């Protein structure tokens, strides 16, 4: 009443209207920024997936909305060609510069944010929120916000501003279940933890470790006939193997929600795909993504190792060479990198010699064949020099392997096998490669296999076949099995 006595009623009403209007405008502004941020984060996650998977399904809601959003952004000048900017193709034989990738990504992300909050993105933002509320988007990082806007009571409404606290409390329960051995109860709680707090990176990392390592520590590998076909991953899985792919899915979910955290890419590529699944193409794929964002200096080293394991010797060589230039005084650059540079160079020489010999065998021109053979011999001599210079068990093993192959070409099969047998016992890193080569030479020469070698061939013949496999895939693999069995 004192205000009404001091000021005219009309003035008070105007002031109240202005305050309410300002509050309403501020709320609308906050809501706009929240929606824009959710759309921006989803856009980055969808862009990451588009960069890593060029064969996206036509009926994928994320892919379709992403393509439409990119088209609008390009049409209004936010990008010239988004995918070519975001996924630049390096020059052939040149290793991408990780620091340059980081700078490019940050510059591009600023333009993504400008688009996400612009009037040009209104239709796409609204479509994003609608699909997120319907839970149709895999990469909707802020799904809890979209659900809250839809009304009703959910786990996100229930905890509201205390989601991080709730996630921490649930994680304590996860740890308790782990110590009790309740693996299956852990999985549901872990997923709830990261749903409440999508930025709980440690939950993703430790959870995936539990799934891929601790849960499987005392489990035997599932025999192939007892496995079942998993259509999503297109692999045969038993109880133990399912835990590996639970870890894969868990980390992929973390990457979708946190596309700029290198630790998630690293653990998926190195800890699961390399260490547990021996899937080197996927290990390379995710470790290559890890160096596109800010990372520790040891991350590229694991990528270079996986390049080598995947047969990408040129990339590994370029990587180690670049590492020495970047960190010239480090122990790795002084003691480790030179050895791996020589190792990959030796593999490259051997590859080039093999390719030249294949060309010589396929040509109808005798003169050309002689020239190609001479070039092949030159590369083999370079490989020998490299392996000799290494002066370590790996180099010695490769030298013996080369000598054994020459014996094989000369028809001295027993001497070749004896040489390979010695080499594999002297060089643990080459054991599997040399053991497979011994079996190959024995089959070529008609020499009976040992019991352990027969079992190895039978195990190989079973790989990839399990109940539930699609008929066409089963038929294709069965033909491969019959080809192996015909060698007995």
Describe the structure.
By secondary structure, the protein is an all-alpha fold. Among the domains are: 2-151, no CATH class; 449-488. Helices cover 73% and strands 1% of the residues. It is built from 23 helices and 2 strands. It has helices at residues 2-6, 9-52, 61-75, 82-86, 98-116, 122-133, 143-149, 155-159, 163-180, 183-196, 201-214, 239-257, 262-274, 280-290, 299-309, 313-326, 331-362, 366-390, 393-409, 413-426, 431-445, 451-462, 471-485, and strands at residues 228-230, 235-237. Helix 6 (122-133) crosses helix 7 and helix 18 runs antiparallel to helix 19.
Can I get a quick summary?
Among the domains are: 2-151, no CATH class; 449-488. Helix content is 73%, strand content 1%. It has 23 helices and two strands.
Write the layout of secondary structure elements.
Blueprint: H1 2-6, H2 9-52, H3 61-75, H4 82-86, H5 98-116, H6 122-133, H7 143-149, H8 155-159, H9 163-180, H10 183-196, H11 201-214, E1 228-230, E2 235-237, H12 239-257, H13 262-274, H14 280-290, H15 299-309, H16 313-326, H17 331-362, H18 366-390, H19 393-409, H20 413-426, H21 431-445, H22 451-462, H23 471-485
Antiparallel strand pairs: 1-2
């Amino acid at each position: 009443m004192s205000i009404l006595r001091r000021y005219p009623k009309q003035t008070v009403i105007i002031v109240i209207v202005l305050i309410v209007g300002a509050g309403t405008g501020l709320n609308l502004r906050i809501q706009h920024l929240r929606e824009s941020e959710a759309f921006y984060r989803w856009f980055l996650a969808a862009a990451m997936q588009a960069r890593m998977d060029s064969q996206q399904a036509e009926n994928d809601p994320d892919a379709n909305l992403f393509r439409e959003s990119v088209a609008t952004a390009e049409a209004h000048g936010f990008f010239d060609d988004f995918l070519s900017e975001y996924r630049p193709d390096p020059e052939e034989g040149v290793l991408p510069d990780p620091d340059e990738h980081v700078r490019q990504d940050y510059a591009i992300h600023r333009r993504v944010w400008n688009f996400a909050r612009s009037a040009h993105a209104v239709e796409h933002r609204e479509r994003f929120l609608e699909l997120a509320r319907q839970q149709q988007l895999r990469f909707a990082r802020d799904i809890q916000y979209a659900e809250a806007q839809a009304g009703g009571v959910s786990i996100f409404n229930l905890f509201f501003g205390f989601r991080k606290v709730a996630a921490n409390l649930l994680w304590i329960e996860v740890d308790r279940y782990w110590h009790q051995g309740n693996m299956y109860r852990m999985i549901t709680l872990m997923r709830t933890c990261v749903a409440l707090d999508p930025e709980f990176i440690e939950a993703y990392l430790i959870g995936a470790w539990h799934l891929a390592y601790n849960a499987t520590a005392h489990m035997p590998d599932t025999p192939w006939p007892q496995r079942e076909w998993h259509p999503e991953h297109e692999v045969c899985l038993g109880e133990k193997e399912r835990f590996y792919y639970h870890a894969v899915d868990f980390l992929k979910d973390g990457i979708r929600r946190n596309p700029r955290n290198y630790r998630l890419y690293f653990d998926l590529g190195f800890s699961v795909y390399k260490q547990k699944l021996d899937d080197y193409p996927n290990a390379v794929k995710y470790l290559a993504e890890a160096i596109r964002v800010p990372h520790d200096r040891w991350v590229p080293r694991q990528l270079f190792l996986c390049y080598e394991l995947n047969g990408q010797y040129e990339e590994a060589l370029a990587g180690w060479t670049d590492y020495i230039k970047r960190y010239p005084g480090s122990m790795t650059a002084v003691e480790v990198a030179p050895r791996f540079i020589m190792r990959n160079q030796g593999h490259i020489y051997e590859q080039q010699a093999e390719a030249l010999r294949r060309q010589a065998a396929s040509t109808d021109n005798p003169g050309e064949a002689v020239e190609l053979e001479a070039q092949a011999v030159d590369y083999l001599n370079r490989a020998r020099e490299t392996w000799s210079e290494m002066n370590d068990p790996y180099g010695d093993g490769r030298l013996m392997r080369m000598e054994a192959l020459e014996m094989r070409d000369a028809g001295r099969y027993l001497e070749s096998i004896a040489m390979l047998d010695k080499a594999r016992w002297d060089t643990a890193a080459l054991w599997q490669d040399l053991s497979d080569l011994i079996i190959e030479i024995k089959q070529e020469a008609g020499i009976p296999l040992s019991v352990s070698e027969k079992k190895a061939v039978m195990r190989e013949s079973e790989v990839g076949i399990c109940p539930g496999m699609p008929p066409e895939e089963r038929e294709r693999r069965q033909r491969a099995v019959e080809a192996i069995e015909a060698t007995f």
